[in-house]
């Protein structure tokens, strides 16, 4: 099968498009034919060698976590899905990866039924961003109705899902982004919009109960200033030191928690996220769909830090190109779902 392999952890350029053996599912696993892969900052951080603990095996290694596809074959003890089922999910962290390929193996805990309302490209946009947003708001911050929640980078992969979850909860949602995302975020349910390029959020906000900090550094520090005593800041980019956490607690009565999707994700979250998608009250937003051969472009764009919603890579383009004549002869319909 074709796969995108990481040969060195010295940058996105070290990804190579190669032929590799198709993986075999273990007894409790499924072989998933990958239709689409969601891009996350984690992917290019790994390529740059910034998260070495997430690479479980020797290089070369196939990265990628978010996936939507079709069950191709079933391990002898795997009973939740059968061949032909459409599924989506996130490969386990830290010892998973492997979705930048035509086929990947996943356990039943890592996947769930793909909602009929979503294309493969849309479904692949959900797992990591959706699970992170859901866990951060409800497990780490215990967000309640009527609370004031500030979502930084509200237009990003995590943020745009968090805005929708929080709106459904009945919270008062404040989102930060640049001006071009104002209308997008208003439509998603943001009650107050702060253009971080024009004003400092701490100058216009106070009495916030919960902050979802997707930026870190100075933004974490300034976020503590807008939270009322007893409130919570959940930070995603990096774990603050124990001294920092203690200082914020002692001086501001604000709890700062690092949320780690690697450590804290549970399979049940994917199903909770899927339930809201199935109910039609949450939807991922995909800015662009790239072909499999364009994966480095997608990762570079993600690394620039200004993607609205999600970027997705489809494998159907490659399959379509290779199988075009065959399919034309067989009068088969293309399965590509580029939007
Ligand atoms: N700890 C974990 O388990 C975990 C899990 C998932 C993600 N993360 C981390 O969480 C962060 C966010 O992930 P993501 O997938 O949402 O990233 P993303 O999709 O790449 O975020 C892009 C968004 O960030 C916005 N943005 C950039 N600078 C901003 C600023 N100073 N203030 C407000 N918005 C800003 C951009 O909006 P504009 O274009 O309007 O600027 C853009 O919409 C990343 O650092 C990621 O590594 C951590």
UniProtKB/TrEMBL annotation:
Write down the superkingdom of origin.
Answer: Archaea
A Pfam family assignment: ADH_zinc_N_2
Q: Where is the Enoyl reductase (ER) domain?
A: 11-313
Annotated SMART domains? PKS_ER
Q: Where are the transmembrane segments?
A: none
User: By its UniProt entry, which CDD domains does this protein fall under?
Assistant: MDR_like_2
| Cross-referenced InterPro entries | ADH-like_N, ER, GroES-like_sf, NAD(P)-bd_dom_sf, YIM1/Zinc_Alcohol_DH_Fams
Q: What is this protein called?
A: NADPH:quinone reductase related Zn-dependent oxidoreductase
Which species does this protein come from?
Haloquadratum walsbyi J07HQW1
């Amino acid at each position: 099968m074709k796969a995108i392999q990481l040969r060195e952890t010295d940058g996105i350029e070290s990804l190579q498009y190669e032929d590799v053996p198709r993986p075999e599912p273990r007894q409790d696993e499924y072989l998933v034919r990958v239709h689409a892969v969601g891009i996350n900052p984690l992917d290019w951080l790994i390529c740059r060698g910034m998260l070495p603990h997430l690479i479980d095996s020797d290089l070369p290694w196939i990265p990628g976590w978010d996936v939507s596809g079709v069950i191709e074959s079933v391990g002898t003890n795997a009973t939740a899905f059968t061949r032909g089922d459409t599924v989506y999910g996130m490969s386990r962290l830290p010892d998973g990866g492997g979705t930048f390929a035509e086929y990947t193996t996943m356990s039943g805990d890592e996947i769930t039924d793909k909602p009929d309302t979503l294309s493969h490209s849309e479904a692949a946009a959900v797992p990591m961003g959706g699970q992170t947003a859901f866990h951060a708001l409800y497990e780490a911050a215990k967000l309640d109705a009527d609370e004031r929640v500030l979502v930084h980078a509200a237009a990003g992969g995590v943020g745009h899902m968090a805005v929708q979850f929080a709106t459904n909860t009945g919270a008062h949602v404040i989102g930060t982004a640049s001006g071009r995302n104002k209308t997008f975020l208003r439509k998603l349910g943001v009650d107050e919009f702060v253009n971080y390029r024009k004003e400092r959020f701490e100058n216009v906000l106070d009495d916030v109960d919960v902050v979802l900090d997707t930026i870190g550094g100075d933004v974490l520090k300034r976020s503590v200033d807008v939270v009322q005593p007893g409130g919570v800041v959940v930070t995603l980019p990096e774990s603050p030191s124990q001294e920092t956490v203690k200082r914020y607690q002692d001086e501001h009565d604000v709890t700062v928690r690092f949320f780690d999707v690697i450590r804290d994700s549970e399979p049940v979250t994917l199903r909770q996220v899927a339930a809201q998608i199935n109910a039609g009250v949450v939807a991922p937003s995909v800015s662009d769909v790239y072909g499999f051969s364009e994966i480095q472009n997608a990762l570079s764009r993600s690394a620039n830090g200004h993607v609205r919603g999600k970027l997705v890579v489809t494998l159907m383009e490659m399959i379509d190109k290779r199988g075009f004549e065959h399919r034309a002869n067989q009068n088969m319909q293309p399965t590509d779902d580029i939007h």
